[in-house]
Amino acid sequence: MVISKKWPFRAAVGIILTVALVLVPGCGKDEQSISETVGESAKTDGEAVLYLNGSAVSAEEYGMLAKENSSQISMQYTTDQVNQEDFWETEIDGETPYSHLADLVEEQLKEYYALKELAAEQGLAEDYTYEELMDSMKEENQERGESSSEEINYGLSSFDEASYYKYWYSNLETQVVEGLIQNSVKVSEKDCRDYYEENQEAYTYDVSVSILYGEISGDESGAWNTARQLSAALESGASTAEIEDVLGVSLEELDLNSADTQDGLSGVYANRWEIASGLQEGEVYGPYEDQGMFCVMKCTGRQENEQASFDEVKDQIERYLQVQAAQEMIRERIAEMDLEPGEISEKEVILQAVQ
């Protein structure tokens, strides 16, 4: 596994941006290792604000984070306090605002540098400097600016330093978690079963429905006519094989329940569950239009106040426990990060950043 210079944009994965950044493999971009993007090794010029496990944090990187987090600190004080002269250096309730900001920046840097270390250990990336990362941002922005006006460009048209930094590390964390799951995390069936037994209420659903579901696309009038024929065929009790053979429509057999309504996915899924949950066994719904598709469904079974079996949710539990274990490994590495002061004063960098 390698970390691409561009993470493709489609389904949201927790990007820490105030824009609709989405990520899905296969956007037509060739994957490149991070070392190809931002350089093969970190460089140290002898001047740093901090050293984390020996890696230098430049004044540029530290200052960018200080500026980004300054409002989070100032919001904790009154307007009069913030507006007073030398606010950042004035002791308030036993603490100076700049030292509070320094603590916050250090916490973030420990997290990001722990991710860099783990990425290198997992073979996902080689080391790189903040300067090299910003060179990668410039290249990204240039390529976005040069892209054809006809090409769909999801998310930001260009990044600034702070947004690219967050974008990068959010995706790096995703890659590190996946790498740890593949290479280091072990979850047994017993672990899964124990979790299932201890959290049975999480796998009890109010409503469970089984449905036959079909989607028809194409010319609007033709697709609508086919959808009406599908609805009539389902009403008549025709078999799935007969329907698929005569109408050329593929039907899906789906089991949906209130414990897994697929929240966060596209509106198609949410709408489908909302309709299906209200159907009684044998009832047909549709055709109805949903995001350019004509849809029909038939309820083939309905249960209420049922509990999912272990076999039904085993894969879901295993994935959850794997992610939790990987995230715990990341937290442990963050806690182990050794921080040493550098040649440049944190206070000086902060005061310059917040002016």
Structural descriptors:
disordered N terminus; 48% helix; single chain; 7 strands; elongated; 355 residues; four-stranded antiparallel β-sheet; three-stranded antiparallel β-sheet; alpha+beta
Description of the structure:
With 355 residues, the protein is an alpha+beta fold. 48% of the residues lie in helices and 14% in strands. The chain is built from 12 helices and 7 strands. The protein has helices at 34-38, 59-74, 79-83, 97-121, 130-146, 161-183, 189-198, 220-236, 240-247, 267-276, 310-336, 346-353; strands at 50-52, 55-57, 204-216, 251-257, 284-290, 293-307, 339-341. It has a 4-stranded antiparallel β-sheet with strand order 4-3-6-5. Helix 2 packs across helix 4, helix 6 (161-183) packs across helix 11 (310-336) and helix 7 (189-198) packs across helix 11 (310-336). The longest helix has 27 residues, at 310-336. It starts with 33 loop residues before the first helix and ends with a helix. 28% of the residues are buried. The model is unreliable at 1-45 (pLDDT under 50).
CA-based gyration radius: 27 Å
Return the string of H and E elements: HEEHHHHHHEHHEHEEHEH
In order across it, which strands form the biggest sheet? Answer: 4-3-6-5
Largest sheet: 4 strands, antiparallel
> Given the structure, what is the number of helices?
12
